[in-house]
Amino acid sequence: MTDHDTLFQKTQHAEDFTFDERVANVFDDMVSRSVPFYNEIQRLQSDLIVDFLPENSAVVCDFGCSTGTTLEHITQHPKCPSDIKLIGYDNSEAMLDKARAKLDKLISAQTVSLCIADLNNLQDLPTCNVAILNWTLQFVRPIDRESVLKTIFNALKPGGILLLSEKILSSDAVLNRLYIEHYLQYKTERGGYSDTENQRKREALENILIPYRLDENYTLLERAGFGRIDTYFRWFNFANMIAVKL
Ligand SMILES: C[S@@+](CC[C@H](N)C(=O)[O-])C[C@H]1O[C@@H](n2cnc3c(N)ncnc32)[C@H](O)[C@@H]1O
Ligand SMILES: O=C(O)C(=O)C[C@]1(C(=O)O)C=C[C@H](O)C=C1
Q1: What pLDDT, in 10s, does the model give residues 36-64?
Q2: Which of 79, 105, 173, 229 has the greatest number of C-beta atoms within 10 Å?
Q3: Pocket of ligand 1, candidates 91, 144, 238: which has the most ligand atoms within 8 Å of its Cβ, to mutate?
Q4: Distance from chain centroid for Cα 85
């Protein structure tokens, strides 16, 4: 069970956001209160993912898997093939510890494996049908994003997909400000965070989470080689994209 997120109630001074043990301990609570429609997105993703899995020998890689929530959701889908292999990658040992606890049965059954790995240095990736990057590319330095996507593109089988979820900016400054205001209001009213907590987290994420516009993400995906790119879900400053390796 994850603890209730009170991280930014306690923080006294501005510190950069990191996925350390303190964040890992509260992450499931934090993410479900901070990403609008988080659970619904997990459901939509599992539906889309099984559409692209072969009956036999399906492989799914989740980059920035955190506590393993997405991997667990996929295995619970009624159409998930029984011999599927899922691999979760993350560069935070604290997050992977939580994932190990959540997925212990699936790990023992060799359905799931977890790897400590930095997205900037992905090596020996298996050939996969589906790759997932949920709210993770936004933490990679902009200069490195294209090469991360190329590495993932190269690991995918033709006909395979990448699901890319990101916090995004609007190209229109007025709308962008409005979306952010509505997001902060959402976190207060629905997430139960105070204005102070929101402000502190915003400062902690500055220069750490660097959002791109939707069109910039599309360009990155195209440059990496993907075709048939679409946004299957959007909520103000959050977007969920699908990209196919044709
Ligand atoms: C917002 S969380 C992702 C949430 C998760 N995908 C989900 O759906 O619940 C971002 C994750 O990416 C990981 N991460 C950030 N930068 C990374 C990097 N360079 N390489 C690998 N993992 C990274 C963090 O440790 C964290 O677990
Ligand atoms: O709380 C925010 O402002 C967020 O941006 C949420 C967000 C993300 O979108 O990646 C950032 C950090 C993690 O707590 C999980 C989600």
Answers
A1: 999 999 999 999 999 999 999 999 999 99
A2: 229
A3: 91
A4: 19
Dihedrals phi, psi of 49, to nearest 5 degrees: -60, -45
Domain boundaries, the chain: 7-244
> Whose atoms come closest to the Cα of 132: which ligand?
1
Q: Decide: 19 in ligand 1 pocket, CB within 6 A.
A: yes
Instruction: Enter the tokens of residue 163.
Output: 């699901």
CB neighbours of residue 133 within 10 Å: 25
To the question of whether residue 66 is assigned a binding role by annotation, the answer is yes
| Residue with the two structure tokens 């502190």 | 200
Sequence-ordered alpha helix ranges (H) in 68-159? 69-75, 93-102, 104-108, 142-155
CB 60 within 8 A of CB 49: yes
171 exposure class (CB count in 10 Å sphere: 0-12, 13-18, 19+): exposed
Closest by alpha carbon to 128, among 201, 199, 59? Answer: 59
Candidates 151, 240, 84, 156; CA nearest to 73 is 84
- Residue type for 96, please? L
Instruction: Could you please state the CATH topology (level 3) that the domain comprising 7-244 is classified under.
Output: Rossmann fold (3.40.50)
